[in-house]
Amino acid sequence: QVQLVESGGGVVQPGRSLKLSCAASGFTFNSFAMHWVRQAPGKGLEWVALISFDGSIRYYVDSVKGRFTISRDTSRNTLDLQMNSLRPEDTAMYFCAKDLFRETTSNYMDVWGKGTTVTVSS
Amino acid sequence: SSELTQDPAVSVALGQTVRITCQGDSLRSYYASWYQQKPGQAPVLVIYDKNRPSGIPDRFSGSSSGSTTSLTITGAQAEDEADYYCNSRDSSGHHVLFGGGTKLTVL
Per-residue pLDDT averaged across A89-112, rounded? Predict the structure, then answer.
């Protein structure tokens, strides 16, 4: 079945780095755009970044631009999020999500992982 | 505007109809989708534009008019109690916006 499994979360000090990964299975990974979405404790959903199906387009929310990098590895069917210069306000559950339609980029996310928790604290 | 606005909380009697709304200027240009999230779980797509993904009960429906998009649950069930989020593109088309979420209570 279609599945996304995030990993890589943990506790990290402000200013340090962390890399999240999302393992995809059950669908043609290189045909779909992918997203990272986060949710701070007790708060709502916040879109973080997207990457197009072929990796040629990457967009970021302003608050992470220049600090986070989204990438994909089609050989491993993996989506990554490299997070540098982490701040306390980056503390959240991070979800990866699959775009609904093949070979396009939308705001429709039809499959979500269970998330991985990132805590930025000294 | 680069925001989507939702009422923080809405309640509905069991079996009755409830409409959850989302407002934002970008909705004049881009279609919205709706997500249901229960405590401790990942969000689930329930409506995209006016369509339902497979497996979503037909009591869920979507509509839009101008800068407002709505999720309607006709005959709300106890299991529909959850947080609901709308999303859309922003005015540039490059970013994705989420509304602040609506907590639905089924009485």
Answer: 97
